[in-house]
Write a structure and sequence with these properties.
The protein is built from 9 helices and no strands. The chain has 210 residues and is mostly helical.
């Protein structure tokens, strides 16, 4: 890690530490600068607004799900199992600051932060695309479009469930996610009588070649 990247990472860590104490809404960039004994210009080089820190936090989670695909035995898993493990890796990366993560989302949803909400939609789309890539989903055309809609719904609902989950190791979230993926798998394998393909033949639920 070069000096610039190390400083950016350190700024984010200090921001998370301060926000845990005072809350995300009350955090200011000048608080971070004062705590680190650096200038605002040093922060500006890496984060032009406070929400850029939240973006960097969620990007860490995206990187965690991408790295999950390098795990031993990944290629032997079904598409459903890959998706499950990738989503759980994303959530586990956020777990050290789960309450703060919820505060970041509430900050984005404030009425005056419409631009942050639009960015949030783009972030969801980006994460779903990386989930698809990490699972090596093969679909294209309308099957890909249907699969993305289904996967986005599963991802967003699981994230919301996880934010409120107080069970040890987020076990209730894991059970919820498995149910959602298995339901999608059954839906995708459905066939209309006399038809060659079901109405929701989203190929991401099928097992890859072993």
């Amino acid at each position: 890690m070069n000096d610039d990247a190390a400083l950016a990472a350190r700024i984010l860590e200090v921001a998370l530490m301060l926000a845990e104490r005072k809350g995300w809404d009350a955090l200011h960039l000048h608080d971070i600068a004062a705590s680190m004994d650096i200038g605002l210009a040093d922060i500006y080089r890496h984060y032009q607004q406070k929400d850029d820190l939240a973006e960097a936090w969620f990007e860490r989670a995206d990187l965690a799900l991408v790295r999950a695909a390098a795990r031993e035995g990944w290629g032997a898993l079904s598409y459903r199992e890959r998706l499950e493990q990738a989503i759980l890796a994303w959530l586990e990366a956020l777990a050290p600051h789960r309450r703060l993560t919820a505060e970041m989302l509430r900050y984005k949803l404030q009425p005056e932060h419409l631009h942050l909400q639009l960015q949030g939609l783009l972030d969801i789309s980006r994460t779903v695309q990386w989930l698809r890539e990490s699972a090596s989903l093969p679909d294209s055309g309308w099957r890909r479009e249907v699969g993305e809609v289904v996967l986005t719904g599963i991802f967003v609902s699981t994230f919301g469930f996880w934010l409120r989950d107080s069970s040890p190791g987020a076990s209730r979230t894991q059970a919820w996610l498995e149910r959602q993926l298995r339901f999608a798998e059954r839906l995708a394998s459905y066939r209309l009588p006399g038809s060659a393909a079901g109405p929701a033949q989203a190929g991401w639920t099928r097992s890859p070649m072993r």
